[in-house]
Design a protein that fits this description.
The structure is a homotetramer of 191-residue chains. Chain A is mainly alpha-helical. Chain A has one domain. Chain A is built from ten helices and no strands. Chain A has helices spanning 4-20, 33-36, 40-65, 72-86, 88-97, 102-127, 135-140, 144-159, 164-179, 183-189. In chain A, α1 runs antiparallel to α3 (40-65) and α6 (102-127) packs parallel to α9 (164-179). Chains in contact: A-B, A-D, B-C, C-D. At the A-D interface, α1, α3 and α10 of A face α1, α4, α5 and α6 of D.
């Protein structure tokens, strides 16, 4: 079975997720800076989430490029990943509207953590279809970033109990770490 | 006429349906657990509906894979299915916001029942185009799950008059039954 | 230049239009029939608009199937059509929320009329690219339905000043007339 | 790496942006002209933004047509462009709801300016992949419109401090200037 429709459907869902997040920035009724100011934290959390969803799309793009065929298990592992990504607009809005409060930041980290786990499961499901010619396994290699990230999200979630700013800093740091695109698969597939 | 655009359009509509359902989870204004709690039933109904829409996308994907060409009748049978799927966000929100009340659960079952009937009509419309080489008919076979499901939805709708919990249990049970991907078509089409 | 991306973009926009119309059916807060009843006119107008957008997608699908290449003029004629289609959710919600009042029905007809004109302009723009081999011109033929519809919409708009029910009946009648898929192009292109 | 998925994802995001803008036109509760009138400025700003997003889709379409392959840098430059485009619904709604006030018009210009810069960066990123066979560089040529536009947006932003109408006139003027489709790339790529 081809992977074209899986990619198209994922593209559609991710495109909608990344776009409807902006709907959490409600148009203010006034026209001065005072009316706009309350939106500043919503805008900051929107930028962070846009980058995260962009990273997921980017890596998903690379991973499926290295996929050779699609099984029922891969389809459901992919839907599982999309489920957690679909919660981004909600936690983004919650974090933004509550000025980076502790509990919203913990839930934000929870969604990041579950999405990272879902991504890992999808990666394993695709690898399981490539036992003879492990294209993706070679490309992924040791996958240092993929293993560090969930640990950092877990630390961030715990840290919200003490100092929410630590969690915020970790989320930004992990995003910056991933902004470097995943050249491993490109190298393996390249030329 | 090719089926590519039919698949692309269906993917788009299903991707939007599965994603806008999350908009029914309104961002709470408070930042504590008390503010989040009222969303628990909305979240549970979101999970169930996400799984159902995922099942439809999955089976639609398999069915159209076995379609050989597309007629005007197939196009409209497909739009008819998409119409009933498009009501998922509404009934999901209604069930969730009213804590699994009887009438919302009955309407939820009504949408499930109509979508199942629409899926069956689409299946027949595609089969009607394959009279010489019945790829889909062979693949679908006896279609036990496709025949049991509408009966179970009907029982669930009636049960809401007595005990809404029965309906909820049936909807979850049918979803679990379908989560096993439809290997029949995969087997028939397989290499 | 290929027409694939034009079709993909149009599919995306039409898929979103047909799906976000359902957001006008706001989830009621009560769980009884009394809470649901006010939504009946919104639901009826949703069905009508779903059918209209489905007709446009269907005919657009056929028309672009007969297009051979895409110019800048075709791109903009297509965007012009999408603009009028994008107003469907607004007029549908307005008609539904005001129980088929005269002015909302007149505006609904106005959007139908402008979309029909935009469709005609797009058809002419595609024909203008096929002067040597007029595939689309042959397929469209006399285009009786395409010429009657705008006249009927105009009559409906005027009729709202006297009796809004006439306009509603005309919109339903034109939709039924178009539900018969456009076999002319299919025949012309057919194997 | 192919550019198909990049185009598909961009099409999806742009299709959603252009469509959800219409959601800022809230359905009025009354059914007379008085209820509709407050929406006039929202409708006007919707038309202008629809044209701008259409221009971006159009030019993006042409530019990627002239792209030969896609690198990580191109992927992120594209996401950066989509980020600024995703702010169109917000600034459009803000401008419309505040009857073309000075600050909303300045922010509108800010988003136009940032999108223009992001488009330029994407253009450079694609050109950087074509050093041996500069298809895009030849096609773009001197790019007069691409260089004038940001300057005009900057003038418009400053002008809002004195007379917001100047800014509005500039935004309309630049849109009209771009409505002439970019025939340079078409000519260069043409048969």
């Amino acid at each position: 079975m081809g992977k074209g429709r899986l990619e198209a459907f994922s593209d559609g869902v991710i495109a909608i997720i990344i776009t409807i997040m902006v709907l959490e920035m409600k148009v203010p009724h006034g026209e001065n800076l005072a009316a706009l100011m309350p939106l500043a934290p919503v805008f900051l959390s929107y930028i962070l989430s846009f980058v995260y969803v962009g990273i997921y799309w980017n890596n998903h793009h690379h991973m499926l490029h290295a996929a050779t065929h699609v099984t029922g298990g891969v389809l459901w592992a992919n839907l599982h990943l999309l489920f957690w990504l679909s919660l981004f607009p909600f936690v983004t809005g919650w974090v933004g509207e509550n000025h980076f409060g502790a509990l919203p930041l913990a839930f934000y980290g929870g969604v990041l953590l579950m999405a990272a786990i879902a991504y890992y499961i999808l990666q394993r499901a695709i690898m399981a279809t490539q036992q003879e010619n492990p294209v993706l396994a070679k490309a992924v290699g040791r996958d240092v970033k993929g293993k560090i990230s969930p640990a950092l999200y877990a630390i961030a979630i715990v840290s919200t109990a003490f100092e929410p700013k630590i969690a915020g800093a970790i989320y930004i740091g992990v995003a910056l770490m991933w902004l470097v695109p995943d050249r491993r698969i490109e190298r393996q597939m390249g030329a």
